[in-house]
Amino acid sequence: MKQFSDLSEFLDQAWSLLTRGVVDAKFASRNPTFSTISEEGFPTMRTVVLRRADRMSNCLEIHTDLKTNKVFSLKKSNFAGLHFWIPKAKFQIRASVIVDILTGSEVEADWSRIPMQSRMSYGSVPRPGAEIKGPFDYKKIPQQDCFAILRCNIKELDLLYLGDIHQRAVYKIGEPLVSVWVAP
Ligand SMILES: Cc1cc2nc3c(=O)[nH]c(=O)nc-3n(C[C@H](O)[C@H](O)[C@H](O)COP(=O)(O)O)c2cc1C
151 in a domain, yes or no? Predict the structure, then answer.
């Protein structure tokens, strides 16, 4: 029966699951739900790919098209959330994040590593979310100018483990790190 005896071991497990998602396309943490706040104030969710997870800087990264609605929302409010459910590990991770939108020379190195066929995801005419007359009335034109990295700086992590005994903890990221067990 798996149990976590201390808060740092619990946090280690979360980072290990996040890191695996970056390198293993079949692992559940590869595809979190990313939530932003729309101009009208609604929470807005979508599936994304986790591209980077860096424990040292407490940040997670997502790639996107600069012209998507999520980027417009983030320009109004850069408070966002990431949600992961990893069934095999019975582990839920919720991250409250503040997002930096990286573009231009800041993303050149990452752009150069993206395979040609995957660049299709960045550059669409008309822009993603624009109304079109028919279902196929759009073109995908890879454009480096449209490529953005959403750097999600973690402010809080809420971890839930649904083992035989349920466990939950909250980590406020800062100097110092403040962590507490909470009732699941
Ligand atoms: C499995 C999967 C992975 C996706 N990965 C991304 C991604 O990494 N970045 C992204 O911007 N959109 C990704 N999408 C598309 C988004 O879910 C969404 O449809 C799109 O980004 C437009 O969202 P928005 O209008 O809310 O900005 C993915 C969708 C699926 C189903």
Answer: yes
Q: Which residues of 80-101 are buried (b: 16+ CB within 10 A; e: fewer)?
A: bbbebbbeebebbbbbbbebeb
Does 63 sit in the ligand 1 pocket, CB within 6 Å? yes
Nearest to 102 by CA among 138, 147, 59: 147
Looking at every residue in the chain, the average pLDDT score rounds to 97
Residue numbers of the domain that contains 144:
7-129+136-182
Give the mean model confidence (pLDDT) for residues 152-168: 98
Asked if the structure places residue 1 within a domain, the reply is no
Quick check: CB of 70 below 6 Å from ligand 1? yes
Pocket test of ligand 1: the residue of 48, 76, 101 to mutate, having most ligand atoms within 8 Å of its CB, is 48
Q: What is the mean pLDDT of residues 67-94?
A: 98
pLDDT at 50 over 80: yes
Residue nearest atom 3 in ligand 1 by C-alpha distance: 48
* pLDDT for residue 1: 75
Instruction: Count structural domains, the chain.
Output: 1
pLDDT over 90 (residue 35):
yes
Question: Any idea what the CATH number is for the domain that residue 28 is in?
Answer: 2.30.110.10
Element (H, E) at 111: helix 108-113
Q: Whose CA is nearest to atom 10 of ligand 1?
A: 64
Averaged pLDDT for residues 45-60: 98
Q: Which atom of ligand 1 is nearest the CA belonging to 73?
A: 27
